[in-house]
Amino acid sequence: MIAAPPQETAMAFPHSRPRRMRRDEFSRRLMREHVLTADDLIYPVFVHELAGRAAVPSMPGIERLSIDELLKVAEQASELRVPALALFPVTAPEAKSLQAEAAWDDNGLAQRAVRAIKQRFPELGVITDVALDPFTTHGQDGIIDDSGYVLNDITVEALVKQALSHARAGVDIVAPSDMMDGRIGAVRAALEAEGFIHTRIMAYSAKYASAFYGPFRDAVGSAGNLGKSNKFTYQMDPANSNEAIHEVGLDLEEGADMVMVKPGMPYLDIVRRVKDEFGVPTFAYQVSGEYAMLKAAYANGWLNEEACTLEALTAFKRAGCDGILSYFALDAARWLRKAQG
Ligand code: PBG
Fold it and tell me: What is annotated as the active site (predicted)?
């Protein structure tokens, strides 16, 4: 005897069938709460003084770019409607110093890169990192005393000079990533005083002392300078959450237009708290180590690259992000375009 095929029959229980809304594509689309688009993405890029491109071994698919190559990437980003690039210069070892003077050189690499992009692609947003670590011989984000402690107020003066130099080059957004106290207020006051009233500040407000930045430090060449030291005296303890709310509140009072949480995926609880508490433009940085980790799994065939990347980026939006800095930004924008048909 052949058994009768299983039949769905009316049940007295459950009364609620949430699967009804998940049954068909049309109703899944109707109740979808968040949609990732290219508008949500910011692409971080490494710029070097050399010609052409150089691979970053711990970040497969990411290269350091000459300004000529950067312009090609800027063109792709514009074409894909990715709103902005975030620039990270790789300083030549001989240009590094104790006081990081190269950081505010109007003819420095970051400044030249900004001018080149704004001239060719004026509509593309350009973000620069305000911090001294690419320029210091010791790899710290600020100026140190004899004991190696990063001095706050002297560093803030240097950061102000760096931010003004970026503003003079025409940058749209300066992004202080240094975690010194009071730097947002100081940078804002200086920008206003110099007439740069449209220069936006994206504050790395809740930036944690994370081990996930390792591949970035390889990419900008600061890992060797930093050696075995750490950034625990200024970046936040990964164990803390209330402190992030305090930091974001201060940066907003001091004049930040946008706030950022960093790293990303392991810190989405912080994003959600920040968004709920302040309701301001909130960003997160899916950092180099997160990228490296996913790429390693993709390379082994352990995870599906397109599906996992888009899922991860959508999770940032669900957590409350208005935008995501991601090394996957251009690939994600391509996949999203393909999906639209
Ligand atoms: C430097 C800076 C870092 C990152 C962005 N800006 C590294 C650090 O603080 O050591 C990390 C980005 C990444 O890991 O992708 N101020």
Answer: 207 (schiff-base intermediate with substrate), 262 (schiff-base intermediate with substrate)
